[in-house]
Structure formats: structure tokens, C-alpha cells
């Protein structure tokens, strides 16, 4: 028999946590589903948690210092940029993510965004519905087999995107200062960031948001792109300087851009939305009916492992 622990879901945008309750039933029989959005809400409502599952709730050093019984923070998702990993390690709290629940979904979404841009699908749709029937309005459109796909961050999702680009006959180049060469498919050429920005016809962003990558695509780096090239970002909004991108779209210094992620989510208003060659979706690249179930099950299984004294599978903060 296992003793009763305190597990709390601080926030999530799923309708139920039935999957989590089922997985965790032998360590916790009453798991509350809260809607904490601010630091103070997490402190007030989650201070007793031994296992904390979160989606967007901010886990700053101040919040973490109040989690005196906590053994594991499990994040629904890949990115852990909402959690102060150092502070968690200082308090002996394991932080885990779920790295592999939606890899193919995100790559599919990035590919879909790329094709919508390169094949001008949204402009064509709007043009026909407004009464025109003239493919020339969408010119220029280029042949993918003569184009280069540049991938920033060739980890799980970047590699899945590389496979798709390669399958379409595109030349694939990538920039990733940390990936071991043996993990990179042999059809991918590794280059530096500046070289990638200069050579790519489509740049697809797949690195994590870190201190190093925040605003990494700034005026200098974005300014290296060909005026016909497209930018696709399904990683994190704050990697791209949106003000610079807006200016480049206005001045036609870039072919177009597509973003599943924005610096501020949800956006109140965003000047990028006024451009016809800017496509946006509401941070949904990860989503499919199957990926949601995997995400919920894997996050709960990780909490169960730790509370039962077993080794975690997905710990991201080593200490
Ligand atoms: N839009 C969505 O729904 C969604 C869903 C899942 C993940 N994501 C984002 O996608 C990111 C990538 O996910 P993943 O599963 O491929 O992660 P991953 O850890 O497998 O791969 C990330 C790669 O980026 C590389 N990298 C780190 N710093 C870099 C830098 N400065 N320049 C270039 N490369 C760098 C790493 O070496 C690694 O190879 C996540 O961090 C997350 O923010 C978005």
C-alpha cells in the first residue's frame, strides 16, 4: 500500500484531468485542478503540493521558495522557460517536462505553415473569394526542389522538420551549436547562424527559449535573410524580435512569416496581424487528439514515479 501524497494541477487548458487522476490514483486520491495564472495564486493555492503539475503558471524563484514540501514540478509540454530551473535545483525539486508527446505534430504544423507561405495558399483563397480568378496575383511562387530549408535547432522537432523538407526535395541546412554531429541526419549540412540566414529560402525555428536565444533573431540576424525568404516560428515567440519583423514585412525586406507562438500570448493586439503575408495560429502546433492524451499521461506518470521514490525519466534540471 502506498501513502497518500498531495498532488495539485496548478493550471491547464484541458477540460478534465481524468487521465492524470487515473494514473495517480495509488499515490493521491484527490487531485485539485486549479487555474493559477499569477505568482501569488500559485503561492496561495499550491504551497502544500508534493507533486505539482503546471502548464503556464509562473514558477519563479519567489514562488519556488514557498513550495516547501514539493519534490517534483512536471510541466505539460516541452519548454520549461516558465520555471526557474536553478531555483528548483537549489530547493532540491526535480523539474520535468514531456519532451516527446507532439514532435510530429509540431513538425507537421511548421510544414503546413511553410507550405501556406510558399504556395501562397491564404492569399489565393482570399483573392478567389473576393472575385478574382488569376494565379498571377500570387506570383512569385518557387519550386521547392530548388530551395533551401534552414533549421535553427536540430533536436527532436528540428530533425522531424528536416525529414519533411528532405522528403520534398529541398536542400536542408541547420544551425545548432550543441547537437552532436552523429545525431544529425547525413543529408543535413551544419552551418553557422549567419550563413543559415543568408542561404535559406525558408528559415524554421526549433530551438528552445533560453537566455542565449531570447531575441536571437534581431535586426542584424533577420537582416541577413533574402528579401524573398520566409520565416516560420513554432518554437517560442520571444526568440524573434517582432518589432524588427514588422518593419521588414512593411518594407518588403522578407517574403513573409508564419508564427504559432508570439512574444505575448494571448495577444491583445499585434501589429504583425495587419500583414497579408503574416500567418498566425494560437500556439496549437503541438495539438492532436492523441498528443493531448500522451502529454497528460506522461506528465502524471513522471509525478507518480518520483512520489513512489523511482527515478524520473524526463528531469531537466540536474543537481
Ligand atoms: N508550438 C508548440 O506547440 C511547441 C510544442 C513543443 C515544443 N515547442 C518548442 O520547440 C522547442 C524545440 O523542441 P524539441 O522537442 O525539438 O527540443 P530539443 O531539445 O529536442 O531540440 C532543441 C535543439 O535546439 C538546440 N539549441 C539550443 N540552443 C540553440 C541555439 N542557441 N541555436 C541553435 N540551436 C540551439 C539544442 O541543441 C537542441 O538540439 C521547445 O523548446 C519548445 O519551446 C513548441
Tell me what the structure shows.
- The chain is α/β, with parallel strands linked by helices.
- It contains eleven helices and eleven strands.
- The chain has a seven-stranded parallel β-sheet, with helices on both faces.
- α5 (103-118) crosses α7 (156-167).
- The radius of gyration is 21 Å and the shape is elongated.
- The two termini are 30 Å apart.
Which percent bin holds the helix content? 25-40%
Strands in their spatial order, largest beta sheet: 7-6-5-8-9-10-11
- Biggest sheet layout: 7 strands, parallel
Percentage of residues in strands = 5-15%
Summed up, the helix count is: 11
Q: Could you name the ranges where pLDDT drops below 50 across 5 or more consecutive residues? A: none
Order of helices and strands: EHHEHEHEHHEHEEHEHEHEEH
The outline comes out as: elongated
Rounded radius of gyration (Å): 21 Å
The small-molecule ligands in this entry are: nicotinamide-adenine-dinucleotide
End-to-end CA span: 30 Å
Structural class of the secondary structure composition? Answer: alpha/beta
Strand count: 11
What's the pLDDT, averaged over the residues?
97
Task: Tell me the layout of helices and strands.
Blueprint: E1 7-9, H1 18-23, H2 39-46, E2 51-54, H3 61-65, E3 72-75, H4 85-90, E4 94-96, H5 103-118, H6 121-129, E5 148-152, H7 156-167, E6 171-175, E7 188-190, H8 193-199, E8 202-205, H9 219-222, E9 230-233, H10 242-250, E10 256-259, E11 278-280, H11 289-307
Parallel strand pairs: 1-2, 2-3, 3-4, 5-6, 5-8, 6-7, 8-9, 9-10, 10-11
Nicotinamide-adenine-dinucleotide (NAD) binds next to α5 and α7.
